[in-house]
Amino acid sequence: MHTLEQVSAFVAVYEHGSYSSAARYLEKSRTTVREHVVAYEDLLGYSLFVIEGRKAVPTEKAKQLYHRAKLVEKQNRSLFVQSQALYESNVHTVTIYYDVITPLNLITHIEKRVMDYNSDIIINWMHRTRQEAIDKLQEGECDVAIMPYRGQLFAEKEVTWKAMKPIQVSCYASVNSPLALIDNLKLENLMLETQYVTENLATLKSNFTSIQVSPKMHTVSNNDLLCELVKQNGWTIMPRHYMKPYVNRGELVELSLKELGNNMSFGLNAFYCYGKSDIEVFGLILEWIEEWGGF
What we know:
Oligomer: single chain
CATH superfamily of the largest domain: Periplasmic binding protein-like II
Pfam families: HTH_1 (PF00126), LysR_substrate (PF03466)
Number of domains: 3
Strand content: 15-25%
Helix content: 40-55%
Family: Belongs to the LysR transcriptional regulatory family.
Structural class: alpha/beta
Number of helices: 11
GO molecular function, one term: transcription cis-regulatory region binding
Protein name: LysR family transcriptional regulator
Number of strands: 13
InterPro entries: LysR_HTH_N, LysR_subst-bd, WH-like_DNA-bd_sf, WH_DNA-bd_sf
Largest sheet: 6 strands, mixed
CATH architecture of the largest domain: 3-Layer(aba) Sandwich
Shape: globular
Order of helices and strands: HHHEEHEHEHEEEHEHEHEHEEEH
């Protein structure tokens, strides 16, 4: 019978492409990882990898075995996290990472709910990028991360999530922008002007190519600064709930493009580690996030 260490070593080498990279990921020596894989191969009776230079190239049998092995490893991780969570019943601090486009009324909604539940709990709200948030979830420094949905079936790391209601977005420019004077505005007009994009959306790459229109794109990590820049030049795609005050004050205008329509939106997810929802306060926070009305 195979061991969990053998399965874990196999999956790590398969995903990282070499014994050295897998060893760094597993925080074990290269020799140990290699021994686990060799022992697994001896048990199976066939090779899992072919060494080409410094690369460990999976065999056809390894490719067929990988998905089931990954499931076993994932369930093992989940069991370990959940077993640890059973000892964390007394929660005194909650740390939530959020993207800059997270609606403020969602944050205040959760804050009020937690305070009503237990006013002694300290809540830390930290603005972070998606990659930072996912990493810190696994490191145990973050409890819940509210981040944009990438449009993929699986997260980058071994975490799970709950989907939230979509955020409505639109295109905006200064009231004095040439774009605001074009009656039949098209995407090709936007491509000629500077586009401002929030840092997190810029780092999502391929799944947000539709939001990255102009070849001249400036990335900004702060929403307020982004809006100040758009007042002077260019345009942006931002959540309607955030841009409404700027439009009401006559500082920015919502652009209308037939090619994009009026129903552009993207999703937010609440990411968390397996087993976290079994702890009462975190389970409740996830429920409160789901009940939020959205925009």
